[in-house]
Design a protein that fits this description.
Number of helices: 5
Strand order of the largest sheet: 6-5-4-7-8-9-10-11-12
CATH topology of the largest domain: Rossmann fold
Helix content: 25-40%
Structural class: alpha/beta
Order of helices and strands: HEHHEEEEEEHEEEHEE
Oligomer: single chain
Strand content: 25-35%
Mean pLDDT: 88
CATH architecture of the largest domain: 3-Layer(aba) Sandwich
Number of strands: 12
Low-confidence stretches: none
Length: 255
C-alpha cells in the first residue's frame, strides 16, 4: 500500500515537472513569435557619414524594410558595410525598439597612400586595406608607398606584398598605424621600402626621415613630432631627421 502511494507521488512529480517544462517552452515560443511579428525594421538612421552618402550606407547594410529587428546580427551588419564600402573603418550599430536601426560611422579612412603599379594606383588605408583603385595619373594628390609590389591587389582586401618584399609588410603597417594614431599621416609625401637597411619617408615636403626596421614606431613617430616642434627647427629648414638610434640627429641641408 505504502509502495503504491509512493509510486503515485512519483508520477505526480514527473507530470508536474513536464507541465512546468511545457509551460516554459510555450511562453518562450509566444515571446519569440511576438518579437518576430512586431519588431520589424521600418527606419534606418545613419550618422557620421562623410565619404559615402546615407543611401549608400543603408544599401551596404544588407538590411531591408520589414526585416526582423530583434534577430538582426549587428556584427553581420558591420561586416557588410565594411565589405561594400572599404573607406569605412569603424561603425557602431544599435537597435532602437520597436523599429529603428541606428548606424553610426565612427571612423573613415581619410588619408590613403598610393601604391602605383601596372598603370593603377591602389589606395591603401592606415590599416592596410585597399580602399580604391584609380588610374595612376589620378593619384598625384596622395602620398606614395614605393619600393614594393602588391600581390594580386583588389579593392576591399588587405594588402599583401609580393614574396620578395614580405619582410617589410609588418613594418609598413606598424608605421602607418603609428602615423595615423598621431594624426600625422596627412603630411607623408612618400614611404620607401627599397632599402632593407633603412625604412625612410619624405615628410611635410621638407624632410627625409630615416628609421630602422623592427622598431617601436609609436616612439619613433613621437620623436619625429618632438623634433619638428622644437624651437630650433625653423619653418624654412630642410634636411634629414635620423631616427636610427635612440638619440635624434637632424642633418640640415645647406645652401
Amino acid at each position: 500500500m505504502a509502495r503504491r502511494r509512493h509510486s503515485n507521488r512519483r508520477r505526480r512529480g514527473s507530470f508536474g515537472f513536464l507541465y512546468k517544462l511545457l509551460s516554459t517552452l510555450v511562453i518562450c515560443g509566444v515571446i519569440v513569435a511576438a518579437l518576430t511579428l512586431f519588431f520589424r525594421v521600418d527606419t534606418i538612421v545613419v550618422t557620421g557619414e562623410e565619404k559615402y552618402t546615407a543611401e549608400e550606407i543603408i544599401a551596404a547594410t544588407g538590411v531591408e524594410r520589414g526585416d526582423n529587428l530583434f534577430l538582426l546580427n549587428k556584427r553581420d551588419v558591420d561586416s557588410s558595410i565594411k565589405k561594400a564600402l572599404p573607406y569605412v573603418e569603424d561603425t557602431r550599430i544599435n537597435k532602437k525598439l520597436p523599429d529603428v536601426l541606428l548606424v553610426e560611422i565612427v571612423k573613415e579612412c581619410r588619408t590613403p597612400l598610393a601604391v602605383v603599379q601596372d598603370g593603377s594606383a591602389w589606395l591603401v588605408s592606415a590599416r592596410g586595406m585597399i580602399v580604391e583603385q584609380l588610374p595612376a595619373a589620378e593619384a598625384s594628390a596622395c602620398g606614395v608607398i614605393d619600393g614594393c609590389k602588391l600581390l594580386s591587389p583588389s579593392v576591399g582586401t588587405p594588402i599583401a606584398l609580393a614574396t620578395e618584399y614580405a619582410s617589410q609588410q609588418s613594418d609598413l603597417l606598424a608605421l602607418l598605424t603609428a602615423l595615423d594614431e598621431a594624426g600625422m599621416l596627412d603630411q607623408v609625401d612618400s614611404i620607401h621600402l627599397d632599402d632593407l637597411s633603412i625604412l625612410s619617408m619624405d615628410y611635410a615636403g621638407r624632410f627625409r626621415v630615416e628609421m630602422p626596421y623592427h622598431a617601436d614606431y609609436a616612439l619613433k613617430v613621437k620623436a619625429l613630432r618632438q623634433t619638428l616642434e622644437h624651437e630650433l627647427v625653423q619653418d624654412n629648414m630642410t634636411g634629414t631627421i635620423d631616427l636610427m638610434q635612440e638619440e635624434v640627429y637632424l642633418r640640415q641641408n645647406m645652401g
